[in-house]
Amino acid sequence: MEVIICKNADEAGHRAAARIAAILSRRPDPVLGVATGSSPLATYSALAELVQAGSLDVSHVKAFALDEYVGLPTSDERSYAATIRRDVTEQIGLDPAGVHVPDGLAGDIIAGCRAYEQAIKDAGGVDVQILGIGGNGHIGFNEPSSSFASRTRLKTLAPRTLHDNKRFFSEGEKVPTHCVTQGLGTIMDARHVVLLANGETKADAVAAAVEGPVSSMCPGSILQHHEHAVVIVDEAAAAKLRLADYYRYVWENKPEGYQY
Q1: CA-based angle 24:124:142, to the nearest 5?
Q2: Residue 171 pLDDT
Q3: Could you say which of 68, 103, 143, 164 is catalytic?
């Protein structure tokens, strides 16, 4: 696992976008895995800048989102379908027909999960997956105790995740308690993974995922076993990394011509 520590979220977004663009540009029909949340926002903005500058062609890019609430209409601006449409599809300029989000309104959720897995396979698999990380170490909505072999499935959200998500809903409004999420096994199938984290509230989770034991109690720690995983964080999110100085040294002394 590679760790890159940046001064702030904007720098992290630009470094992530440069890496993602390099990976996408190597394939004729690339597949991008996209995530919601605040951590990837600077990355999406930086990718849009590359597209506008003519440095990145996204005309053939397909995208698959990590997760979606169960029971929330896609017309609701808090749904992940709406979030991905606003923050990713429209901003970067992807073809909406090639952007896929799990169906949280399916009559048969289990069948819908299987169909989503198959759609990713039919597209050739994810070339680079963007991730955030929750305060309890979850990636996607794979809460602590999730199986490392899990695939796209229905999950009950943990109390801490529900608490974190309350800020998006009005007082007294019910926060969705279930979701459809790609599993840890699905995420690990991606050829490359870019995990982003910003702010001091993510410091414990980042330290556990990067330097702690690989454990289902911190789902993000499974990325220690990924061949091409990079964690890009700002100084606040890196605050509890014991080897922070070493990670800075490694980045500053990359061999010339280093390829992602």
Answers
A1: 85
A2: 80
A3: 143
Give the C-alpha distances (Å, rounded to integers) separating 21 from 56, 129, 244: 6, 12, 26
Contact (Cβ atoms closer than 8 angstroms) between residue 100 and residue 116: yes
Q: Give the per-residue pLDDT at 170.
A: 82
Q: Counting every residue, how long is the chain? A: 260
The active-site residue, picked from 14, 67, 103, 192, is: 67
247 near 25, Cβ under 8 Å? no
pTM of the model: 0.94
Token code pair at residue 250: 């490694």
Residues 83-142: tens digit of each pLDDT: 999 999 999 999 999 999 999 999 999 999 999 999 999 999 999 999 999 999 999 999
Say if residues 226 and 193 touch (Cβ distance below 8 Å): yes
Q: Is 57 one of the catalytic residues?
A: no
Is 100 among the residues known to form the active site?
no
Look up 142 and say whether it is catalytic: no
Which is catalytic among the residues 138, 189, 226, 234? 138
- Closest among 91, 82, 94, 75 to 42, alpha carbons compared: 91
pLDDT at 157: 87
Exactly one of 127, 136, 164, 226 is catalytic; which is it? 136
Q: How far apart are CA 190 and CA 126, in angstroms?
A: 5
**Joined tokens for residue 147:** 């199986």
In the residue annotation, 29 being an active-site residue is answered as: no
**Span 216-245, pLDDT tens digits:** 999 999 999 999 999 999 999 999 999 999
